[in-house]
Design goal:
The chain contains 16 helices and 31 strands. By secondary structure, the protein is α/β, with parallel strands linked by helices. The longest helix has 18 residues. Keywords: Hydrolase.
């Protein structure tokens, strides 16, 4: 039974709303002169929106009697619901929650459903306390945050503790392949997610599993699937009853177009789909947009504009049974509103969260004053005994005539596919591997374990994704295991680069002739920068600028973000121990 205090609170609210609508009390905001998108009837009507206590309390109220503390003229723009990202690794975007909000909110995103597994894994024994610090003050963020406890990369105990926190609402994505082998930790985490009445995120990898194996995740109650890459994947995901999240993250620049074209071509009902980023850089958001960009792209691909908007609003909210809270502009919902001058090409001119104007013309109006410096760690170097020769590229196998060598080839754009790593034949001359494939010169790559108990685990190969003529670039990622990746042309230069990055908690480093040319420090457990958005963007762009001088011509996502996506597949396909 509800407590007396709670009943009294609700009593005051319903009386106040009644009084406002009868002109006896004052609302917080009257948003006038807008063309309101009704996602329920798929129609647009001219009118106004009345807001009180962060929620919409009336459409087209009688303006001759209502009073509001603030009146905002919408200038005839379209009012659409705040946009929603249904699956986002917000702990893997390098920005802390406040800086991340400074990037996404001006693009119209007012709600995210976020994974926390990399952050919790990186924090190790401090995972529970670190998560509490990460979520501290989350209500002050300019977007709504719903988080998931780690379904992988952490212990069962950490998952259990985080399921009890706010704003955690369920279990995050489970281990990509281990749940198919009968792993007891996966069983226990799934049970905890189900017992807590929360959602269970899926990461089932339909490109890698047999049809029989596809049954398992939806059979145990997995709710959604963001791991689709093509038309066949989408069809299977929908058929097996999963909420299917169309993603556009780092490393897959053409995949989003492929998937949107498939939806249009097959005329699949858009109610089957939601939109998500999965992994995305803040630089990418600032230059192209977030969910707003995908909606506009869907229209470009031939989708009806209102249907495209519904994938990023109503259908996303409905997939988590939260459409009574947001996802549409109707009484009782949060007043999360985006004003745009077009429905076919979303241009967020004004963004409101709970009736408060938080962004204008793609700029956050008031950055949130949240301090994350307490999570900054001290470096713990681990490469003191690393030797340059350990990074040399040696053949897996030599051809019978000794003219060719078999080596590993890694492809940054192979993420999510079995083509991420392949064995290829390359020339072998004068006792050394010639780093070229089909006549094209490639850089070398080394995957290096940071902390070794005995023999250090190192994997050397060739790499498609970064092409420098000299110098080296390295990155570090601590989840689920602490590893470096370094790319270059010379073992000595690559080795020196790694030894310098080893003096940081984590980050990315570009060197030439043993001199640092650009750096990005990730001091918050090795996964986040204790920086403002502008500082972070400047740092990532400095990495690209330095690499440009070394011969690399980058397109799309910043190099640091591209390299960090490697760790997903390195873990997935067993290249880390």
């Amino acid at each position: 039974m509800a407590t007396t205090e709670l009943v009294s609170e609700h009593y005051e609210h319903v009386r106040t709303v009644f009084g406002i609508l009868h002109g006896e009390k004052t609302a917080d905001l009257l948003l006038r002169n807008v063309n309101i998108l009704d996602v329920h009837s798929e129609s647009v009507f001219q009118g106004s929106i009345l807001v009180y206590g962060q929620r919409i309390i009336a459409l087209n109220p009688d303006e001759s009697i209502v009073h509001a503390r603030e009146i905002f003229d919408g200038e005839g723009m379209y009012a659409i619901p705040g946009l929603i990202d249904t699956h986002l690794h917000f702990d893997a975007q390098l920005a802390h929650p406040a800086a991340f909000g400074e990037a996404i909110v001006p693009s119209g995103t007012t709600t995210i459903f976020a994974e926390t597994l990399d952050f919790a894994s990186a924090a190790g024994e401090e995972a529970v306390e670190a998560a509490q610090a990460l979520f501290k003050g989350y209500e002050q963020l300019p977007y709504r945050l719903y988080a998931f406890a780690p379904g992988k990369k952490t212990s069962v105990e950490v998952t259990d503790a985080m399921l009890k926190m706010e704003p955690v609402i369920g279990l995050g994505e489970l281990a990509h392949l281990s749940y198919m082998t009968g792993n007891d930790d996966d069983f226990r985490k799934s049970a905890l997610g189900r017992a807590n009445g929360g959602w269970v995120n899926s990461h089932w990898g339909v490109t890698a599993l047999s049809d029989m194996q596809l049954n398992y995740m939806p059979a145990i109650g997995a709710h959604n699937n963001h791991d689709v890459w093509n038309e066949e994947d989408i069809e299977k995901s929908v058929r097996y009853g999963l909420q299917t999240q169309i993603k556009f993250g780092v490393g897959s620049p053409e995949v989003i177009k492929t998937m949107l074209r498939a939806i249009v071509k097959r005329r699949w009902p858009s109610e089957n789909f939601q939109l998500c980023a999965d992994n995305i850089s803040v630089d990418r958001v600032l230059t192209k947009g977030h969910i707003d960009w995908v909606i506009s792209l869907a229209v470009e691909m031939g989708m009806n504009p209102i249907q495209a908007i519904k994938m990023g609003t109503l259908y996303s909210a409905r997939s988590f049974a939260m459409d009574h809270e947001f996802g549409s502009l109707a009484p009782g919902r949060f007043a999360d509103i985006v004003l745009t001058d077009s429905l076919s090409k979303i241009n967020p001119r004004y963004v409101f969260k709970g009736g408060t104007l938080v962004a204008k013309d793609r700029k956050l109006l008031a950055p949130v004053d949240l301090d994350y410096s307490g999570m900054v760690q001290r470096p713990q170097p681990g490469l003191a005994d690393l030797a340059p020769g350990q990074l040399d590229l040696t053949p897996i196998e030599l051809s019978a005539d000794g003219s060719q060598a078999k080596v590993l080839l890694f492809d940054v754009y192979g993420r999510g596919h079995l083509k991420f790593a392949q064995e290829v034949w390359v020339p072998f001359r004068d006792g050394a591997v010639v780093p070229e494939v089909d006549g094209f010169a490639l850089n070398r790559i080394s995957v290096v374990q940071r902390y070794a108990d005995g023999e250090r685990h190192i994997v050397n190969g060739l790499f498609k994704g970064v092409a420098v003529e000299r110098g080296a670039v390295s990155t570090f990622w601590p989840a689920p295991a602490a590893y470096f990746v370094v790319v270059g042309t010379d073992s000595a230069e690559m080795h020196d680069n790694l030894r310098q990055l080893d003096t940081y908690v984590g980050g990315c480093l570009v060197t030439e002739d043993r001199q640092i040319r650009a750096e990005l420090a990730l001091d918050i457990y090795g996964v986040m920068a204790d920086m403002s958005l502008s500082e972070l963007v400047d740092a990532t762009r400095s990495i690209d600028a330095a690499l440009d001088k070394l011969g690399h011509r980058n397109e799309g996502e910043p190099v640091v973000n591209k390299l960090l996506t490697l760790f997903i597949s390195l873990d997935r396909f067993g290249f880390m121990v």
